[in-house]
Amino acid sequence: MPARLPQEKLVAIARARNESLKPQDGRNPRQKGRDRSRRRESITRKLLPFFRRSSPVVEPEYISYPARSRNGGYRYVPAISPDEPLLDIRSVVRAAYDSRRLIALLLLLGMIGGGAATLMLSRKYTAQSSLYFDPMQIQFNFDGQSQSSATAQSAAAFINSQIRILTSNAVLQNVVEKLSLTNDPEFAGADAGSAAPYAVASSLKKAVTTLRDDNSYIVALNVTTHEPAKSAEIANAIVTSFLDYENKSVSELYSGINTALDQRLVDLSKKVHAAETAVDDYRAKNDMVTAKGDLISESRLAALNDALVEAQQKTIEAMAKVDAAKRLSLADAVAGMSDSEVTSATLVDLRRQYAVAASNLGRLESQLGSRHPSLTAAKASLDGLRAEINKELKRIASVAQTELSQAKKAEQDIAKELAAQKALKLSNTSNQAELNNLELQATAARNIYEAVLKKTRETNEERNITQSNVRVIEKAEPPTRANGPGRSVLLVAGVIGGAFFGFGAGLFFAIMRRLVRHPLVRSYFAPNGYS
């Protein structure tokens, strides 16, 4: 860094410059400049202690530089002391004051320019259309029942996929062709009229945005252009193109599925016919006659098995009845404690007569003596009823035993017949196994055919209801207000911003102007003889 010039040398340099810049027309403005310098020096001496108390004041002669005056002559601007700092608050304030006219001019120009710039800005308008995406995939079978299932994750994936399709080039290119956006300079640029549709679609994609709240099935489509009507028209065209694209895709998908299923049904029908023909031929060849679709031997075996189970149940019931009859005593019968299996109408009537006779005997014993003829007759009648009840109990036991014998005999006969049928079936096992194999193949082919036929019907039903998964709940309307703040707010902001810019530029030039006049800065660019 070069050394700072001493005070005496700076004074000599200033005097030499003043002599060299003296006017040649005979006029001497030097005295006026010195008077003005003295007045400024006096003011500076009074104000200097408030800014820098340690800065020395140049006493011998004040250094000045010539400058053009208002009347066409020269005026001398006080020079800056070498001891003053390059930049501080006082120097900034003095620089701003010295260049106040320039700062005011730039401030005014900035305000005018900022306001004009905001008025020249092109406004943008956003139109919005809302769609409802139903993630529930409704499926109908041929008997009218419906099934719906969708998890939160699958629903989110479905809606995100639909949003990607909504803003895809496949949809936007249809909008470009429908609205002739290749001729619109806003999207085609300088190539309006000759731009490729895919390039215009890519430019249109930048003006399209989608919004969706979390856990919501509603998606908002926003289109931003420089015209309100154009924004609404493009938004509605995108929605229409998206719905047409979805319907066309679904139609093509289900058409392909139905074609494949129809071809599959033809092949399966041939296989079912061949399998059923093989079963019928084998039955006719091996004399295995069927009744109502089943072999007669199989039907008889099943019937005998059911009959054996029923006979065993009757035997068990007969044994229970015999045991109950054996346990039944006269006292139990008279008291009415017999089971329903060993109760008869005769026994019930005898029990009622016995109760009446016993009640009559008790009444007579309380009124008559022990040898009274009426009392004796009542006792004889009660004894006769006891004998009748014992006789009825024996008859019931005999009947139960007879029923048990018959049930056991019937069970044994059915068991013998069932064993004979099983032996006959075992003798025909090889033919039956082959027949079962053929029938199994025919049944499998028939089940597959019915499943594919059912799927074909379900596909046709799904094709008819798929369009209900997407619905337009709000069409786009031309917006009445542009995006962002109004023009008055923009104008005020532009004026304020321009004012700050103009003031900053003027202050910057004023500071640079003062720095250039500083002796320390000038010493860097002084000739070698001054250093």
Automatic annotation (TrEMBL):
Show the stretches that span the lipid bilayer. Answer: 102-121, 489-512
Pfam families given for it? GNVR, Wzz
Q: What is this protein called?
A: GumC family protein
Keyword annotations for this protein? Answer: Cell membrane, Coiled coil, Membrane, Transmembrane, Transmembrane helix
Boundaries of every Tyrosine-protein kinase G-rich domain copy: 432-507
Residue ranges with Basic and acidic residues bias? 16-40
GO CC term, one of those recorded: plasma membrane
Identify the residues that the record assigns to the Polysaccharide chain length determinant N-terminal domain, covering every copy: 87-179
Q: Which GO terms describe its molecular function?
A: protein tyrosine kinase activity
Compartments reported by the entry = Cell membrane
Give the span(s) annotated as Disordered. Answer: 15-40
